[in-house]
Amino acid sequence: MSSSTTVGLTELAEAYLDAYNSGDLERITSFLSDDVHIVHHNRGVDVRGKQTASELFAGAGQVIPDKRFGDRTALDVIGSDSVVVRHTFTATALGDMPGFAAKGEAISLELATFLTFRDGLLVEYHDYG
């Protein structure tokens, strides 16, 4: 793998995570491929397609508007099109979120997030933690 590939993937992952943290739905979905697959392992989330993913992000924004990734400990390129990010997801639930939190509860999840890109767009997203 060339260093330019590593830099490109790192920058792409950083840009996606910045978009996610912004809460701007249009900005977030601009990174998604039409056939994106998003899975939050251990949380019961498994969606396919840009429209369904957009609905997932919109719904999450209503219940946990302060959601964000932070406290990054690593962002490593693990293949020609993939990275793994070790970081913490934090938010406060404005309503009950089965499998995540009760209303008013602070959420803090240490995650390993695997991101796979194709042609500059996110095609696979897997959270573990």
TrEMBL record:
The keyword Isomerase applies. It comes from the Bacteria. GO terms for molecular function: isomerase activity. Keywords: Isomerase. It holds the Pfam family SnoaL_2. Residues 13-125 form the SnoaL-like domain. This is Steroid delta-isomerase-like uncharacterized protein. It comes from Pseudonocardia endophytica.
